[in-house]
Structure formats: C-alpha cells, structure tokens
Amino acid sequence: PFKDCLIHGLIRDKEGRKMSKSLGNGVDPMDVIKEYGCDALRFFLTTNSAPGMDLRYDEEKVKSSWNFINKLWNASRYVLMNISDLTEKEINPKELALYDKWILTKKNLLIKNVIKNMDKYDFHNVGNELYSFIWEDFCDWYIELTKGHMTTTTKSVLLEVLTDILKLLHPFMPYVTEEIYQKLPIKDSESIMIAPYPTYNKK
Asked: Which residues pair with 55 in a beta bridge?
C-alpha cells in the first residue's frame, strides 16, 4: 500500500553492541513508553540517526526527548493562557512588532527546511531544525519578548506559530500535538491529522 519503504539501520545498545537475547541487552519498548511516553520514544527513534546509519539506544536521549515535550507543553500553556480571548486571527502587518516579524520569518524558513528534509527522508535534520526553533527561537526568545507586550496582533502571531509547530511535529509526536491542538481557540480542522500542512511563503 506504500509508494516508498524506508529501511533503517540496526538499533544497538549504548555501547554499540547488537541487541540480543544472549547478551541480555534488549529493551522492551512498552517499558520505555510506560516511563517516558510513546511520543518521546517515537521522536528519539525517528530523529536520532541518519539514513543508513545504526542507532544507539540511549535512555538519556529518550529522557531528553521527554524534556523537549515538557518544554513544548509549558510553552503551549503560556500561549493558550494569553490567547483565550482571541475570536479570530488578526495579523495586521502595520502592527507587527520587530520580534513578531522575526519569529514569522524564522518560522517560514523552518517550514522550507522541514519540507526539504522530509522529502529526502532526512528525519534527523528535521528533528534538529524543530528542536532548535522550538526550544531556542520560540521558547527562549519569542515567548520571553512577548511578556508585557501582548497586543491582539502578537496574540495572533503566537497562535499561528504554535499551530504550525504542532503540525510540523505531528508526524513525530502524534499524541501530544493532537492534545494541544484540540485546546486551540481557533483551528482550521477538527483534528490535526486532517489539517493542512504548513507551506513555505516565498514572499
């Protein structure tokens, strides 16, 4: 039923050894899911090795993925708290602050790079792009800059950026992105699974 089939490398243990019953170094994914959640394991497995390369399973990296999800969740709570009174998305170009223009430009370039790497199945590059944008640009910079300067336009920018982040992350984190998407006051679809994928704006 698929046009393409992606063959990934072996999943090895932390020391690089092949997982086997005789070595007793196998990992039960259900145990990992119970500890860190399905999305954290999925994000780690899909974004931590280049095509054709073996993947070393490292619980610390799964934990790092869980921390990343936690960061996204907290950022989403901040956005939702500040846009709860938004009835429609109004991005007036004349009212955009410098930091609004900056994050929209960064988001547009992110979409371009994600699409380019998704088309090549370079999921590790997609993971790096998303991680860097969400953690550094969106959470550490833009959200901090919006505190105390919350105009209707900035609220709309917060909504647009978060919505596109969720859509770009959805193939890697289907559960948490759907959960947050359902809480958005303005959505373009009843489910993120059938929402239109973000597109790069050349202008």
From this structure: 11
